[in-house]
Prior knowledge:
- This protein has eleven helices and 22 strands.
- With 479 residues, the protein is of the alpha+beta class.
- The protein folds into two domains: 29-305, Fervidobacterium nodosum Rt17-B1 like (Heat Shock Protein 90, 2-Layer Sandwich), CATH 3.30.565; 317-477, no CATH class.
- The longest helix has 27 residues, at 202-228.
Amino acid sequence: MTMYKRGICCFLAVLLLAGLLAGCGGKKTAQKPDRDDRPSNSQEREKPDRDESDREDSDWLESEWESQAETTRPLEDPEELVDDALLVTDIYWDEIVNYEYDDLYCYHIPQINISSPDVEILNGEIYDLCYGILEESVYSYGDEPYVIGMAYVWGRLENLLTLNIQVTYNWGSCDYHLFYVDLKERTVLDKEAFLERLGVAEAEYQRLLSSNLERKFLELYGQALEYNREFEGFAEHYNSQQERTLSQENLDNARPYIDRNGDLCCVVKIFSMAGADSYFHLINLSGGTDPQEQWCNGNHEPIQPEEPAGDMGQMPETYAGFIADGGYEPYLDGSHLCGDVTQYAIVDVNQDGILELFLDSGDGSGFFMTYIFTMDRSGQNVIYLGSIYSYGGLAYSQRDRCITYCYPRPTVMEGGRDFYLLDDGEFVRAYGLYFTNYTEYRLVTYKPDGSVAKDESLTEEQWNEWMEADLPLEWKEIG
Length: 479
């Protein structure tokens, strides 16, 4: 064979190989960056040693990642769409350890494994969007990033797929990015086309959204109105925020999606009574339980947290039996400092799906002794967390996921409240709000060891926003 013919054969072989690779769904836009190409702070960060089992899990995950191009292929045959296992998978993941607070922040970027030019472009856009957020708000800030989580949930109803990517910020709020795909046509849809193919008329969608949005607003702030109606300006502020929440502009900006159970849900703003002006919330429009925020479960598999065991005020059977049998009595203060236990409250303090039990006693002086219990994951065993002596009783900040109370009794000269997080079975002081002469206000942030991390001045308006986030516990009489 001549040199010329050999050159032609080699050229044709290269073209054939390129065609085969393109047919296997290779991507140019959504490639996992090499770890050596990460930003410098990612290269310098050292991860803590893990035990052997964790190391094996990590090695397996890395192996799966590196072979993803082979194991996760675009779905060509419509019949394959019946198996949803590989419909949406990670195209990229990472984690950052905050050593000061012993926190692990996980980040996941998804890809939709459908063979289609439209979906191929969409996957590139999703990757560019999400990795851009990581570059801007994570990799530029070492182990104290602005974004502390990126996770996703997707749902499918017949031939419609929605993908909901949640970005969680370190101040406690979330943002959401929604995408819609018609699996049969293999096309990307906008919100209007999604609702049309779902078979939901615009008028019905608006009705469902408005009624459930009103329900959610009342769940969040209805009780606050009852307790604060007498305060000047509170009712007016409540009405204003409710009106903004239910405004046509806010309804038009809401984004519907299908959750993992096949229910029609929505991401929508609710204008708040405290904290930021508004927060995004997830609302079920189909009559089911409202979805929870998305978090990584530690195995780098995006999951939805367990459903709460019940709402505030509902008594799980384990606690009912515990109270009826007097199981709490060995834990009571021997002097019964504030009298006998007469009432209880139920609340999921850290919103992890396990309800805490509060047993309260008071002697009429304004001081209370409160005994706190929780359950193990089985829901069968009650665990004693400790007792709190406070003036005025306890309150709960759903926004900050904190129990808050004051001690000692405030005076006209000085006072305040401390905020406690429930962390690994212990209440840890996270914040303190303090005043002097009701003219100077301070917010103190504490480290886990109790030392001060930050001490800053607040305006009176900022002080009021923090205080208005506290809701008294819903106490019920025992017996």
